[in-house]
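Model it.
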Amino acid sequence: MNRMLGIGGMLFGMATTVVCGAQTGGQTGGQTMATGTPVGAPSADPAIAAALAGISPAHVQTDIAKLVSFGTRSTLSSMDTDLPAGQGINVAADWIESEFRSISAQCGGCLEVKRDEFTEPGGNGPQSRIPKPTKLTNVYAILKGTSADKAAPWVLVTGHYDSRVTDVMDSHSAAPGANDDASGVAVSIESARALSRLKLPGTIVFVAVAGEEQGLNGSKHLAQLAKAQGWPLVAVLNNDIVGGDTTPGELMQDKTAVRVFSEGVPASATPEQQRQILSLGAENDSPSRELARQVAELAPAYFKSTARHAPPAGPGMARSHAVLLVPPFHPVLILRRDRYLRGGDHTSFNGEGFAAVRFTEWRENFNHQHQTLRTEGGVEYGDLLKFVDFNYVADVARMNSMMLATLASAPGEPQHVRVLTTALDNNSELVWEAPAFAPPGTTYEVVWRDSASMLWTYVQNAGSATRIQLNVSKDNVLFGVRSVDAAGHRSLPVPPLPARQ
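Modeled.
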């Protein structure tokens, strides 16, 4: 949560120190210090991998087609009484709730299904997109963790189920919203199907929010609810426009890549905290950016290259014996909060101090979002089902589920992480406290990278110690400390703040 937002502070008394991997009590004198090893390839959790294998493009297609069938899902339609039967956002909310309840029934009632209903006040200002008091409904399902410890981590996945046409105030015209954002809602629902049978220590919340197109209203209300109720959210994954556009003739779409947007300086940082972040060069170590970084580091464990035969050289010709290697599905980290002139529901959670990122397809087709259905100049406009790649959405759901299950299995994040700056030298000493949720067998890793690198390059296992000395100049690298459970599930890394003992 607000890990990079703490300011200074005194350190705690004697801590166990690790030097060259061996634990010793107290200070280490002149002993040789640990130097770390290159970060290796991550390993997949067999139970998580099996759950991901069950994610179905057919289920994704069914979910998106059902949402499209409601005609319009304009948030404003919740107040309309003249819509045809079975049309509008209210029936869409009812269906999402029923789908979560159906999934829960299949896992013995494992999901607690809820509606977050509220009235958004109307406004007459030039920027207002809600002209009169309007009912909004967020629908969500909670997969409670097995741990009785209230500090066990929570993670959340969301998409928005409202849709729009060119005129955002039009609540009656057909607004299928297949890609924007029935695709993201399908990710949330399909993740619930895949993960609901797992027994994880932490809690997962599967969400579909309303009001995104009118101004992030639904996510803002839910983020404030999470903050007020003290949800220990360590990660929020927002999926918006993850349909993998299939427009005929589109040659620049990359079906192996999904963008992951993350904020640098946290939206909730105070001016003093912003100054400290800038002085430390920590703009790329916000909680949200650590979350995005971990998506990129963990993906190779669950997504592999595939091989396929090259197509024939021409019609009527024999099949080629050449084999093409298809790159694995992978995230591409975009180092900004969102796209130009655009916003998303992760921003609402960023504003409340939560780590949150946005998943979006590699290349958007703006003819197929925020458009009234029509054909002009031979171009078909509108967010239609036929422009969605259900296999691509399933891959995005797998990547979300990978992160949800991993973080819900991991210990909490180390607390009060500091790098000692008492002396001017070329070494580094880091200290921290155990997380609030540290199951038996919890150990710690220190990771670091050059200041020009995006991903961690070196790691040093600290065992159960809460202090480590490294033969690495603190001025040349960026550090993080993360918790690891006995099965190898890792928390998000926490970067240290400078402190003098």
